[in-house]
Amino acid sequence: MNMRVADGQRLRLGGVGVSVLRPPAPPSPRVPQPVPRSAPERWQVALVVGGTMRFERNRDTVDCESGDLLLYDAAAPSGATAVLAKGPARAVILHLPEHLVPVPGHALSSLTARPIPARPGPGALLGGFLRGFAEEAAWPRLSETGRLGSAAVDLAVAFLAHLAEAEGLLQEGLPSARARQEALLREVKGFVLRNLGREDLSPATIAAAHHISVRYLHQLFQREELTVRDWVRERRLERARADLADASLAERGVGEIGRRWGFPDGAAFSRAFRKAYGVPPGEYRRHPRP
User: Fold this and answer.
1) Which of 100, 131, 166 is the last residue of a domain?
2) Which residues form a coiled coil (predicted)?
């Protein structure tokens, strides 16, 4: 079940998003919009505020009171819509990328599309946090959005893990924060290696592709003893060196090989290669070394 915001506004909080859904007061069904299974922000946690709301998916309906929390799967094959609101009801929706939620997907799927009262505990804490975003007019005055995003993830994970554990859906403990970071770092590295030829490959584009902040991306690479840019440059130079030593690519010019691996400027490629390997790329091609 995927909830869409009528005006499309969304507040970015680091790697997560917040939006507000305001359905019409009279019954007014909307055609659900399908969401691809690869939707980057798969899990959506909604808090109903200020009235009651009814959500519809296929022929099923979910009635929610003010203060109820709901979990939806944006990668589900069919969509959903809010079809009725009583009072000034709205839903504050927290959009969570899948990699930030360590609770197993099968457990989360068992918790979707049903109202969950925000009782004392993790639910009440998450509900109180989301309630603070109910008025979009206050969004421009917010600061420290990255830290607010981290807090949102921590509260949401605590809430979802608590529910899953209470219902016996977790057979093993959740992975540690370090294990989650290592898994994300592997994902980031794989993305970089698949896109080394892109001229626009930078910390900003890498972070955006994984719905994290540039600051958090640099934190992931702290144990690598290289900055993000240096790690990318090393991988590019390794690929270029391999091409220069490949006899089957002898007809390709040095500049062409540099451009293939993200060095559009031939002089800059030559300087970077010489600094890394002690010789310019043309000389290395004539006398390749291990």
Assistant:
1) 166
2) none
